[in-house]
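FORM 7B: Structural annotation worksheet

SECTION A. Query
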Amino acid sequence: MTSQVSSPAEQADENTAGEQRRPGGAKDVRRLDRVIIRFAGDSGDGMQLTGDRFTSSTASFGNDLSTLPNFPAEIRAPAGTLPGVSSFQLHFADHDILTPGDAPNVLVAMNPAALKANVGDLPRGAEIIVNTDEFTKRALQKVGYAGSPLDDGSLDGYHLHPVPLTTLTVEALKEFDLSRKEAERSKNMFALGLLSWMYHRPTEATEKFLTTKFARKPDIAAANVAAFRAGWNFGETTEDFAVSYEVAPAARAFPPGVYRNISGNLALAYGLIAASQQADLPLFLGSYPITPASDILHELSKHKNFGVRTFQAEDEIAGIGAALGAAFGGSLAVTTTSGPGVALKSETIGLAVSLELPLLVIDIQRGGPSTGLPTKTEQADLLQAMYGRNGEAPVPVVAPRTPADCFYAALEAARIAVTYRTPVFLLSDGYLANGSEPWRVPDINELPDLQVQFAQGPNHTLEDGTEVFWPYERDPHTLARPWAVPGTPGLEHRIGGIEKQYGTGNISYDPANHDLMVRTRQAKIDGVDVPDVEVDDPDGARTLVLGWGSTYGPVTAAVRRLRAAGESIAQAHLRHLNPFPANLGELLEGYDKVVVPEMNLGQLATLIRAKYLVDARSFNQVNGMPFKAEQLATALKEAIDD
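SECTION B. Predicted structure
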């Protein structure tokens, strides 16, 4: 788990798999401390399902893990082509890890396109399992191979395992009343069975999952289970796989508790439900489906028993409009989207700023601009969240750092929204949304109290002694206005986007009043209570690496590598991006060099330089993929030595 501190042995290179070998009957069993596996094939080959099932069995076994799904934007990309390759990478270990790993130790390639798209990421000596049935002349030509790489010596630096996965699967399912095409669809389960044998993964949960998933088609369920078992048996009996591997549970990495594997979007959904329960407010989601945020809508729609209402609107504007209406009506209101949707929602976010109502705007960032890279990750919406509205419309911004941390980020965003009566941005991204890791299920007593006091009656006394309700009277500590639920007697008040008079809420065009309201709304956001940022600096370093959001894993892994090599470097990571923690300026002044890695072209660095006049150095990447720990370690070493 990312909250743990590793021993020096555990802080070694995250891609180096130390091994111990012991005899195990007819076949050797080797003990590894970590493994990185990548499943790759056509987007219709079931690679995401295969990876997800292997991940689930690995989580139940007790390993620490981190995943990286990677798939095309098209629902069904052209078969056998490089753009159509879908992959799923899993890094699992017997100790605390932070990233899906830089380079796979094992590649399962279901066709030539999958091999060509991924072989460049493999270190020498890696294992490659290929489905030889797909290496036809036509398939090879489609991706630019003049001849078969299985025969021309180009893969001599790897441990190659040619396996006719399709043929073996069809043969294993010949007793079932299935067409050849239907039988071939189970080849991913054959591959999953083989890998499960290789790494001693539990099988019961996968078989139960298949039986449940295809409960309405028992023949298909039985065929998939049979293919899975056949893959396992193939590994056990074939001479090509003379070695299997064990990766022990990560007993030292986890504090005592109940754990489950969780993705970022699922953690966000659970965090929103927990926030509504802690606030004793009904949860309302007004949303329009958009990659990679749609999973939150799908998940929340399953939980009506917790008072959750989900509204799939006809467009982004309707989604946030309904959510803002729900906020006015006294619900914990949420809208989910990605960058293009934020652009469409911007006017209503400004209205929420003017009305001063709590609203959670969850932006699962993806590559842009415009439609951009819908299924790839990026951190390029920070300035949009900060400034992407007309007028002075300040909004708090919160960012989770890991998939499991999305749960707690949702609670924190809800706390700020209901306490300060403001819309709040939560900036996750595709890497966190689709990636997964173990999550300790918290005790309810560990969750914050978010109870809300609605306005019940008059809150202001006029000069003549009359008691009245002023909708823009403010709490002296938070500057929040009262939350008056429609229908409460005596609390009728105006709403709308035209400027309000301070206190009374009447429409006002007075210049001095507008100046006061603008400055008051800004002061409210500037005064949001956020914890100080913590710095990890064990030996008084002169260089600080400052991150935010999903860069936490790769940055921390890079810092571990540098320290293991004897380098001195400090690390701090921001959850609150508006307002910044109160101690951030003083912290930054304590270092000679500040490096800010971001999956954009330097947005946080720009904010840091402008606010604190610090010569923050950017290290940027915008290729749709998360940072690799090795490249960050190299860049940080250069900064230290500069």
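SECTION C. Observations
The CA atoms of residues 512 and 518 lie 10 Å apart. Residues 1-13, 16-25 have pLDDT under 50 and may be disordered.

SECTION D. Sign-off
Analyst initials: ____
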